[in-house]
Amino acid sequence: xxxxxxxxxxxxxxxxxxxxxxxxxxxxxxxxxxxxxxxxxxxxxxxxxxxxxxxxxxxxxxxxxxxxxxxxxxxxxxxxxxxxxxxxxxxxxxxxxxxxxxxxxxxxx
Length: 109
Description:
The chain is an alpha+beta fold.
């Protein structure tokens, strides 16, 4: 996503996150969202996953900026939920982690 290689990113997201779209449709949608939101991804830091059977939660601190939700470019504490599909781990959901839950997934910096 950082390099705007949306066609490649398609392989890393679950069928649920793709929303029934094929690779071309999904890639074009991501490109549009990125352009309209003026999204800039500066970097990220991935932490150790928390395994839960056939699912995993992967904490991530995203350094990015966009014109709608993060105009100041503040760190975003995210939790990626992964599922196994066809023997491959894929991103199924992404949520922001705020408040007391943050210390559960992110070590003190």
